[in-house]
Amino acid sequence: MSDLVVWSICLPLLGAAATFVGPGRLAPAVGGAFALATAVTGAMVTWLVYDGGVMRHELGGWGAPLGVELYVDGLNVFMLGMTAVVALAISVASLTYFGVRDHAASGPGRWSSAGGYWPVWLTLWASMNLAFASADLFNLYIALELVGLSAVALMLIGRDTQVLTAAMRYLLASLMASLGYLLGVAMLYARYGTLDLYLIGAQLTGEPATWMAMALMSVGLFVKTALFPLHFWLPPAHSSAPGPVSAILSALVVKVSFYLLLRLWFVVFADLLSPTFGQVVGVLAAGAIVGGSVQAILQRRLKLLIAYSTVAQLGYMFLLVPLTIPYGGSEAWHGGAWSGGMYHMLSHALAKSAMFLAAAAVLLSVGSDRIRHFRGMAHELPVATFAFALAGVSLMGLPPSGGFVAKWFLVSAAIETGQWWWAVVILGGGLLTAAYIFMVIRYAFLPPSPPAFKPVPKLLQATAMVLALLAVLIGLRAVEPFALLEMGTPFVEAAHVGTHQGEVAE
């Protein structure tokens, strides 16, 4: 059954090839079919790991250190499953979104957005699945590069000067970050003679070359994840891309480099992690939460507001680092903080993709994403408005949403480990989130005024609503995802997870 892991990577690649060589008018149908098959495969891998434990697959029968080995544990399939759900929903929305764009731009010699979108999108999906299943530093580098290049190519579907400028900035930042990561990989290979994550982790020593490799790789991945203050490329990139592409970038792409950071820190460099390191990452995370939220409040364009919100929400994920690392004389890793941070990743992926798809619907309807043009939106586009508000409930951390569960565990971990200042940041960040969410909602309920709203596809709005509902509903049933996260986590035996399992069950 481990072959399914390989198929989760190969199927979208086959789909990309089929949509590239086939007739452009058939690309949406073929791409949609392969998207469904890839999502089903990802869901099956997730279930198999949940039911039977960790899976390994040696490509060609050659395992590490000579061959390439795919490895999936609870964390891997958590990422695979999250990607399957969100990516399938975005694929459905893309069918109607690019259909409307192509119809509006129809004419002799016009280029089909959908024809160019599907091969690149499916390649990006395959690259993300490869990153989640790889256990080798060089394969992870290859996957990281493919993700970055595919993401830039997807942005260029927008075909205007603003998108081109943002895409070039994103590309340069991504390439510089990749260089740092690759230098770190080379230093580790020169010292330990292997690229396997677990073999390096077993031999690790705290010498200068190892510290330098850790620093280079971490900073490179900070840039790719857009951690404050290295987020300069994210707001223009995410706000200028076409709606479904913005959803992909914000909900999924930035999570890939964050996932790699966790694998590196907690598998390869676990022996080097210290409370001081955790506090430094925590300061950057707090800067992201406060700085990103304040910037979001200051925006007058919806997509820029959502993009700065992504900068802020990424901070909550990084807070799991200071809250997980043993602190205050304790030698135990805090499993509750780990689960809370990862659950925030899931709830954010669902909520943020819902927000960007709702914004795409508004943009198609109004022709502008300036918030002052949204007067009467609640009456004219009730589904999109409700989807945006519902996603905001999860981002704010209100019960019973997934965001509430995630922040509850993070705040509990902050109090239990004596790091109360992170609890203040989390609660304060929730209030700032409410400020920019209600700013949009307020305009939506004001009396209508020009420009007039045009009809938009119901399927696009419905997809946003489904994702927003999922962002809330996952707060009602967190036992299985939390159990999945505990499978194969590097510190699960030392973590105090029993207490938190009981809390989730309640």
UniProtKB/TrEMBL annotation:
It is a multi-pass membrane protein. Residues 134-432 form the NADH:quinone oxidoreductase/Mrp antiporter transmembrane domain. The chain crosses the membrane at residues 6-22, 29-50, 77-99, 111-132, 138-158, 170-190, 210-234, 246-270, 276-298, 305-325, 345-366, 378-399, 419-438, 459-479. Its main location: membrane. It is found in: Cell membrane; Membrane. Keywords: Cell membrane, Membrane, Transmembrane, Transmembrane helix. Belongs to the CPA3 antiporters (TC 2.A.63) subunit D family. This is Complex I subunit 5 family protein.
